[in-house]
Amino acid sequence: MSDEAVQRPPKRVDMKEVAEAAGVSTATVSRVLSQSGYASPATRARVTEVADRLGYQPDSVARGLRTRRSTTLAILVPDLRNPVTLAFIRGVQHVAQQCGYAVVIADAQRDAEVERRQLALFQSQRVAAVIVAGMMQDPSALSTIARGNSLLVHSPDAAPGSLEGEREAITDAVSDLSRHRHRSVLFISRRAPSANAEPPATLTEVRRRALADASAELGMRADQCTLPTELSGAAASGRLADALGGPGGPRAIICASHRLAPQVLAMLATMGWDIPGQISFLTFGDSEWATAYRPALSVIRLNRYQEARHLTRELLVQLGNVLPLEEAAALPAYVPRDSVGDRPDEAA
User: Fold this and answer.
1) 157 contacts: CB under 8 Å, gap ≥ 6
2) Architecture of the 66-158 domain
3) Whether residue 10 has a cis bond before it, omega within 30° of 0
4) Which CATH number fits domain 12-57: 3.40.640.10, 1.10.260.40, 1.20.120.450, 2.60.40.10?
5) Matching CATH topology for 66-158 and 162-302+332-346?
6) Rounded to whole angstroms, how far apart are CA atoms 136 and 108?
7) Of 33, 138, 211, 318, whose CB count within 10 A is highest?
8) Rounded Cα gap, residues 266 and 58, in angstroms
């Protein structure tokens, strides 16, 4: 094959060339492009313009060798099928890319063995940090990578004690059900209640206890229904039917996660329950799917994009990056929509 037929990559522009074209030192170029030191606004504008014009791209491998630190962040996602997770991933990427970090994503597939393999792979790749974007099947697997040089950062899902404002949003949701004359609420989750763990070890348990407290304050009953993944479809439907019971049973459902909501809604449709005519339904998390569903679903909204941005910024500052200030993420909030209605036997 002739040389003309071979597509050779263009020569990489290095930092020295950018410095010469901008009339500054390579140290100044480094500070501007890494956002890690002082430079005047005019100098920053000139260096950035020259770098863009010349097509400069940072060499992450060389940078890692100089600093003995990777420029890759890793996100471990419990289940990529969860639409709420996409906003979280995008938030991490938008902040990481500003500082020249690449982002790799691994889907744990709700499988403990897959989690362990992915964490071990991250450790072998010596990523700068791992962000766990939700509750793990086996939290003890974190010790595998903790023994390496990576910095572990938990999302709010993996650190339930940091869920500021969610208790208030749950109280608002239960209050709305009370105004619609509901006397009890059924909390549906994958995980069974834990045995008085203090503090609660999982996000599901945090939400379960907040719901129980809010219900008790309003004189309502909080019932539980657990639908683990190993249940067959028929067994799960039977368990849900038993939980709803007869005429005196709960006629309001709060689903513990956005990922579980479609399965529960499908079972309710198969069983012939009308929303909101016969039963009220709301879930944690929000997405375009929740608003497009008919009736549109009431939700306890968590701004996962802003949470991810805030989390990633804190992480990158710990890694030595300098970032401008940014507003904190919005607190969780209850968003009432069309899936909540009056309890049928209490309607006026």
Assistant:
1) 132, 133, 134, 135, 203
2) 3-Layer(aba) Sandwich (3.40)
3) no
4) 1.10.260.40
5) yes
6) 8
7) 211
8) 49
The per-residue pLDDT string of the chain (348 residues; one tens digit each, 9 = 90 and over) reads 444 444 444 566 778 888 899 999 888 888 887 766 678 888 888 988 988 888 877 654 445 434 445 789 999 998 888 877 888 999 999 999 988 899 999 999 888 899 989 988 888 888 888 998 877 778 777 766 665 556 777 765 555 554 567 899 999 999 999 999 999 999 999 888 876 666 666 778 889 999 999 999 999 999 999 999 888 999 999 999 999 998 888 999 999 988 899 999 999 999 999 999 999 999 998 988 999 999 999 999 988 888 888 889 888 888 888 777 777 777 899 999 999 999 987 644
Q: Does the domain formed by 162-302+332-346 have CATH 3.30.1490.20?
A: no
Token pair for 57:
């791209």
Q: Which residues contact 136 (CB under 8 A, 6 or more apart)?
A: 76, 78, 108, 112, 115, 142, 158
- pTM reported for the whole predicted model: 0.69
Distant-in-sequence, close-in-space partners of 26: CB < 8 Å, separation ≥ 6:
15, 16, 19
Every domain of the chain and the residues it spans: 12-57, 66-158, 162-302+332-346
Using a 10 angstrom Cβ sphere, with 0-12 exposed, 13-18 middle and 19 or more buried, the burial of residue 253 is buried
